[in-house]
Amino acid sequence: MKAGLRLAAPPAILGLAALLLWQGAVRLFRVPDYILPGPVAIAATLWRDGGTLFASLLVTLAVALAALAAAIIGGAGLAILFAQSKWLERALFPYAVVLQVTPVIAIAPLILIYVRSTEAALLICASIVAFFPVLASTTLGLNSADHNMLDLMALYRARRWQVLWYLRLPAALPHFLAGARIAGGLALIGAVVAEFAAGTAAGGSGLAWRILESSYRLDLPRMYAALFLLSLAGVVIFAMLSLVSWLLLHRWHDSAARREP
Amino acid sequence: MNAPDAAALVRLEGAGKRFDNGTVALAGLDLALRRGEFLSILGPSGCGKTTVLRLIAGLAQPSAGRVAWAEPAGRDGRDALGFVFQEPTLLPWRTARGNVALPLILAGVARTEARARAETALAAVGLEGAGHLFARQLSGGMRMRVSIARALVTRPALLLMDEPFAALDEITRERLNADLLRLWREQALTVAFVTHSVYESVFLSMRVVVMARAPGRVAEEITIAAPYPRTESFRAGADYAAACRQVSAALRRAMGEEA
Ligand SMILES: Nc1ncnc2c1ncn2[C@@H]1O[C@H](COP(=O)(O)OP(=O)(O)OP(=O)(O)O)[C@@H](O)[C@H]1O
Ligand SMILES: [Mg+2]
After folding, report:
1. From atom 3 of ligand 1, which residue's Cα is the shortest distance away?
2. A132 within 8 A of A101, measured Cβ to Cβ
3. Nearest-CA neighbor of B220 among B210, B229, B228, B230?
């Protein structure tokens, strides 16, 4: 409890001070809202417009979470497949890298043309962005099993699936979870970027569209309010994945174990 | 009970090992492990001691000669061998009990039976009640005990140990040595024990094989005649001191040979 307070206090104090400073500066210099709204104006917008913005947030969040799920299943699945066949890994991995290094904002228009359903297109774009860290870190994890442990498995004539189940998968778990945590943030980014690319085609429902819409009207308080909700969503995703990671690892893995004082 | 009968359990016949990178680790090595004996293997670093154990365990194949077993594995209801690596090599995500049960689970033994037998093996190494702990909650000596329990849980006829106690303090090491001798007698094991310690080899074994390097081969063989059970008083005796001097001299000769 006390440790939690000690951890939360510095960023809370700093944040509060920054907000006060911000509000004070906006007040003092009479900065108009269409240039830089103060935190109070943003909060007011959030309060007034909260219903619409929150509904939009849920739309974007749904895309991001679906993309994260697809990235986790696809990335981990492909990594397991790679672990079964070095040949397959060598053949496919370079293309995964190509997919990763090509900016999604440049692929999005193509995907939007080829895929009829906009929702599916958004999902594909966000998945492409989120998928690589899961694949790369899980692949690394599956290959990171200790040599002595592999010898141990060989000594007891473990079958292939037993080596995978009892050794490689648990050894890969910390790596996989680290990858998933990165993928969580990327999925949200991917969803927003794809929405931007889709523009009005996205049906004007997601949070990115709300930002675009507000920018056309020079409604900066609303842009900031939407931005705030987006980062809040990102933080929540990250926190959830960190919690899952802690639950799975804290009993045995050094990274998650509490250090004795 | 541990009278070594002449029949060898397993023998290396003209065994050679050449690695892919051209390193010749062993050449023309003859070594017989007699049933029921406690054999120590001593030698300079890099002379191929680990390689010898790995050949016997089937974790590596000889590039010359052969590894001959007296009879097929598992004849008397025991699995052929257990291996204790230099590192405890415990799976960190399994508890001590889970680690010890692993060889049984891999062999398809039912979970409840595997757990029960793991508890028995843990008790045999003095770890009753510690089965629920994870590796990071155990001390170095406890981890090694878990590793030994895991090697014993399949009731092997042969136990191969690769410098198992090298990283432990002297007191813990002596205690584990005594425990090991007790297990060897109780379970009628054959043990091949690699060590760097002359004292450890003399205290434990019936026979000490001293290897020389480049290429790895058997240089000398010394029989330690002192009767079992050997206790702490054996360490204080004149026989022990004489044997230590003898082995030490052999080791020095083996290391001098390469110059
Ligand atoms: N996989 C490998 N590939 C190439 N060379 C190897 C390999 N394993 C061992 N060697 C070489 O074989 C020789 C014998 O190695 P080994 O590990 O058996 O020695 P050792 O007697 O156990 O040494 P130590 O006492 O230091 O453990 C060494 O020269 C080593 O460099
Ligand atoms: Mg070695």
Report:
1. B19
2. no
3. B210
pLDDT in tens, A32-72: 888 889 899 899 998 998 888 999 999 999 999 999 999 99
CA B30 / ligand 2 centre spacing (Å): 19
Q: How far is the CA of A168 from the centre of ligand 2 (A)?
A: 25
Q: Do B107 and A156 touch (CB under 8 A)?
A: yes
Q: How far is A140 from chain B (nearest CA, A)?
A: 18
Whether the pTM exceeds 0.95: the reply is no
Cα of B84 to nearest chain A Cα, Å:
9
The number of CA neighbours under 13 Å toward the Cβ of A257 is: 13
User: pLDDT of A67-110, one tens digit each?
Assistant: 999 999 999 999 999 988 889 999 998 998 998 888 888 888 89
| B19 CB near ligand 1 (under 6 Å) | yes
Look up the CATH superfamily of B6-80+160-259.
P-loop containing nucleotide triphosphate hydrolases (3.40.50.300)
- pLDDT tens digit sequence for A105-160: 888 889 988 988 888 999 999 999 999 999 999 999 999 888 999 999 999 989 99
Rg (CA), chain B: 18
Residue A104 lies in a domain: yes
Do A252 and A258 meet the contact criterion of CB atoms below 8 Å apart? Answer: no
Q: Let me know: does B55 contact B19? Beta carbons within 8 Å.
A: no
Distance of CA A43 to the CA centre of its chain: 25
The number of distinct structural domains making up chain A is 1
CATH no. for residue A111?
A: 1.10.3720.10
pLDDT tens per residue across span A193-239 = 998 888 766 666 889 888 988 888 888 999 999 999 999 999 999 99
Domain-located, residue A12: no
**Residue B124 beta carbon below 6 angstroms from any ligand 1 atom:** no
In a domain, A35, yes or no: no
CB B151 within 8 A of CB B189: no
- Confidence band (pLDDT; 50, 70, 90) for B259? very low
Partner residue opposite A148 with nearest CB, options B87, B92, B134 = B87
